[in-house]
Write a structure and sequence with these properties.
alpha/beta; 19% strand; AB_hydrolase_fold; Alpha/beta hydrolase fold-1
Length: 356
């Protein structure tokens, strides 16, 4: 992470209104006074810190280009069954969140945080000092979500009280939505089987890095993201899933919970059926990877043509060259460039100017 950025971690505790806590991270500079508040949501199997290389690259682009785009602060939010939140919710996740974890749960966590319905603890544990909640009512938000996180950002708009008025726009990277008739076809249908059988124990973080770096799926990742995955996505053994293994490290987001997230039957469909409605309520930017690995090219075209009614329904639409579904992991710079383009589009259409 850039040495010029200040960061702080918090636990968001919405109990008793919602049973699952979340972990969030704030980034800012002392010189930032006003501007946009960026809110990042990650994909399945990843974590809030995976966005840090993209954030670094975005700020670098903004500094180089020096447009009339100002940032107030940046937030990245863990899904309740991912990252440090997965550890805090470990016992609760075994009751009612297996074998399926619905993406709306992530949307609900995001919504409760933005509406301050709960309390904020400093640090990454439930023993942290209680601090004042952050009030976003006067902020101009831009949501940025990848895959499951893209869908969860939209689903979060449906909870009351509404947060829709807070968002200037939402930027979706490889949103995991499609016609329900195509879900049973292709790579997407195989995701649960793949996560069920994946390796999830290593002797150490160092060994995990070496093993993953040599694997086809991970060797294409930006090395910054892979190191973040190893440093922030693993935890020491033993755990509830592995009580008898005393040495080594395993995934914070367990295989069971990653698989449970892939099994959500509603997230894909809800947004596909309602995508045009969401796009009429708030400016939405959509960017797919130019490599059609997890989601077929025909599926992407169908979403734009039939779910949305054409690209004219969007604030902007395009492809991230040389990247596939894991674009934030594979090409943080490419994703950052598209986020920057989206912010410029918003500025030109006065979406941002009218709210700043």
């Amino acid at each position: 992470m850039s040495s010029h950025l200040i960061s702080e971690s918090y636990v968001w505790d919405p109990r008793p209104y919602y049973p699952l806590v979340s972990t969030v991270k704030r980034y800012w500079k002392s010189s930032w006074q006003d501007g946009l508040t960026l809110v990042f949501a990650h994909g399945t199997g990843f974590g809030k810190e995976h966005w840090e290389p993209t954030i670094d690259d975005l700020l670098d682009i903004i500094e180089q280009q020096q447009p009339k785009i100002k940032i107030r602060e940046i937030w990245s939010i863990d899904a309740p069954n991912h990252g440090d939140a997965a550890i805090l919710n470990e016992e609760k996740l075994q009751w009612g969140y297996e074998p399926v974890f619905q993406w709306g749960e992530y949307g609900r966590s995001i919504h409760s945080f933005l509406t301050s319905r709960g309390r904020t603890l400093l640090g990454s544990t439930l023993e942290g000092k209680v601090v004042g909640n952050f009030d976003f009512s006067s902020h101009t938000l831009v949501g940025i979500g990848h895959s499951m996180g893209a869908i969860s950002l939209l689903l979060g708009l449906d909870f009351a009280p509404s947060t829709e008025h807070l968002f200037a726009s939402i930027i979706l990277v490889e949103p995991m939505t499609m016609n329900p008739a195509t879900v049973s076809e292709g790579t997407v249908a195989n995701l649960p089987k793949g996560s069920e059988g994946r390796r999830d124990i290593w002797p150490s973080q160092e060994e995990a890095y070496k093993v993953l770096k040599a694997r086809k799926a991970w060797k294409i990742w930006d090395d910054r993201v892979l190191r973040i995955f190893v440093e922030t996505g693993l935890r020491p053994l033993p755990t509830l899933d592995y009580p008898d293994i005393k040495e080594g490290v395993t995934l914070k987001c367990t295989r069971k919970q990653e698989t449970a997230s892939y099994r959500d039957p509603l997230g894909y469909v809800t947004i596909y059926r309602g995508f045009r409605s969401y796009a009429s309520r708030i400016p939405i930017h959509v960017y797919y990877g130019s490599i059609h690995d997890y989601v077929a090219e025909e599926t992407k075209k169908d979403v734009i043509k039939n779910a949305l009614g054409g690209p004219q329904s969007l604030a902007s639409f395009g492809y991230i060259e040389g990247a596939g579904h894991t674009a934030p992991q594979h090409s943080p710079r490419g994703v950052a460039e598209k986020i920057f383009e989206s912010l410029k589009v918003d500025a030109r259409t006065k979406t941002l100017g009218s709210k700043l």
